[in-house]
Amino acid sequence: MSSTGSEIAVKPQGTAQRTKTRELWRRLKKDKFAVAGGIVLLTVIILGIAAPLLTSYNPYDAVLDQRLLPPGTGGHLLGTDQMGRDLLTRLFYGARISVMVGFVAVAIALFFGIIVGLFAGYYGGLVDTIFMRGIDILMAFPYVLLAIAIIAALGPGLFQAMIAIAIVGIPYYARIVRGTVLSLREKEFVEAEKALGAGNLRIIFKHILPNTMAPIIVAATLDVGWMIIAAAGLSFLGLGAQPPTAEWGVMLSEGRNFLRVAPWVSIFPGLCIFIVVLSLNLLGDGLRDALDPRLKE
Amino acid sequence: MLSYLIKRLLYLIPVLFGVSVLVFGIMHLAPGDPAQVILGPKATAQSLAKLRAELGLDQPVYKQYLNWMANVLQGDWGRSIQMKREVLPLVAGRFLNTLVLTLFAALLAISVGLLAGIVSATRQYSVFDRVSMVGALVGFCLPVFWLGIILQFIFGLKLNMLPVSGMHSPGHSGFADMLPFIILPAIALSAEPAAVIARMTRSSILEVIRQDYIRTARAKGLSQGGTIWHHALKNALIPVVTVVGMQIGYLLAGAVLVEMVFSWPGIGTLMVNGIIARDFPLVQGIILLVSTSYVLVNLLVDILYTYLDPRITYD
Does B137 touch chain A (CB under 8 A)? Predict the structure, then answer.
């Protein structure tokens, strides 16, 4: 009997969800900047994945007699770096690492941020106090500085940098989710689930969590760009990915020493970071407007 | 107001306690033995044990924390392993240089951001509005360290207009000598906060100037400039102050990156070198000082709200 009841309840909800997604997609498609951002991002991801098919050069093979060739010479479209490596090839391979770090760091921050936000918001009281005071302490550090402090403990490296920026991101999501849960837990559908005897975990993960997703998706899209910049910044400082890794921050840092004679070695990796972050911002802004058209000016 | 201030100051105690525990904990989680770092790889087991006892590393962790905290409160922040100097005067001197850079960048960001935001809002959809908002989007997405390099390349290496590294000319000191050195790092550091402030100011003013009381002021014959200046700006500034406060953290952290690009002698270069050399007392001191300052700046921002909006009582 109860299963039939829940099926009846689920079916219209599923249809409503599909309609909502279709409406969201329709609004998003209308925003040409968001579409452009999405296309650029997708292109960068594809270029990163298909890097071995797109270039015959190895990103790590040094060819010392071809050092610092300007763009367009010797068969190198964007020139070569201080080790004679093809810059375009390294940028393609760098896309894999730099973009991947951004997405993975956001995924880790999201996972823990959602858990903390859900439990703090739903249970309130002592659980909320403990979680949120912990979050307050994390937020007492300027963002990148906390990441640097964590790397001081873990030691420099790409993986460590990714973990560090993910930890820094947790308070951001925890706060967004908690805020949303605080209003959701008083809603009738939560009361109804409680009255039907549903357990707290079922209510949290099956009913409250899906309703917190809209603000989270927007925040996460915008945050990936920040994470990419932060990870590249840590690599630039020598605390993230290490040479000779084809990572945009490392490439930018290495090229700095040759700025006078070969500015392209630093300019192109920075340009790639800028383009990806810009496209993520355009996409994120478009998503936000599509999810809540009232925000659009 | 006074009760709010007292409440906020009391609230600082657990936050600062948490910060100190976290800073101490992070450094103690670090792999490797500080005694080994100090004495080097050739140290004997006997000398290592002796140094550990001298540093108190053979004591339980909570005792180590209490000793460390007691010393910190008395001004003894330990000794830098790498530089063989007391941490507090070393960090304080460098922090002052970072604060100078941060302050310059903040002033630049606030002036440019506010001006662009106000003009954009009052001339919505004009060429200026469109150009400045595209500029704001670009400024928001530019990696600070890359912008620094580009500025170095254009204004330092190509046009030879401004110095590209350091804080003073050799053998010189003083504000006038520092001025050309700070321009490029301050511009690089201020780009993102200026963009955020401009966007926030624009949307905040646009919201306020649609209110009835602004329409009434205009209907009573007040000029547009006068309405903005006397009526709209103060109300529109409240969310802007929030954003400015949030940008302080960005500025302090961004300064670390900008200092590396421009070889600015602040805490950034000191900290990165400290991490690479595993100079834990130094890194610990820097993080503690910066995070404590950050917490205090946030408190000041909160207090500023009450001045801007007397309706906020914080009861």
Answer: yes
